[in-house]
Amino acid sequence: MDTIAITAGPYTLRARFEDALAPKTCARFRELLPYRESIIHVRWSGEACWIPLGDLDLGLGYENHTSFPAPGQVILYPGGISETEILLAYGGVRFASKMGQLAGNHFLTVTDGLEHLLPLGRLTLLKGAQPIVFGA
After folding, report:
1. To 5 degrees, how large is the angle CA 44–CA 80–CA 136?
2. What is the pLDDT of residues 79-128, one digit of tens each?
């Protein structure tokens, strides 16, 4: 499976796994599919939505990590300084927590439905948590 459908709030997106750059993160995330959760708006990072995962240990380190994901990039922070989390960028992002700047593994890139990212971000900011499903 090279791509994945993502349903977030009322929007449907399609994303490509970044297997060549983040093989361990992609493989681990595939084990979790289908993955259902809620996204909320970030607090410190700018224009993004995130899924806080607390102290969940996925057994991952850094690979293809960035502090500045572009709109449509999905990153997974494997934990350590801050809690484990997944972040979906819809605009300008400087990935951070109350502890300071962080870097997460870029493992998915939205390829279809990019026009829905800004409305999704605004919806989440103004109306609160939205359901999100990562499926096959």
Report:
1. 80
2. 999 999 999 999 999 999 988 999 999 999 999 999 999 999 999 999 99
Q: Which two tokens stand for residue 17?
A: 């796994």
In sequence order, the β-bridge partners of residue 74 are 88, 108
Mean confidence (pLDDT) of the chain: 96
Are 84 and 54 contacting, i.e. CB atoms less than 8 angstroms apart? yes
d(CA 103, CA 96): 8
- Which secondary-structure segment (H or E) carries 44? none
Task: Kindly list the distances between the CA atom of residue 11 and the CA atoms of 27, 28, 41, 116, in Å, as whole numbers in the listed order.
Answer: 25, 25, 16, 6
What is the SS3 assignment for 40? strand
DSSP string, 52-67: E-TT---S---SSEES
| pTM of the model as a whole | 0.96
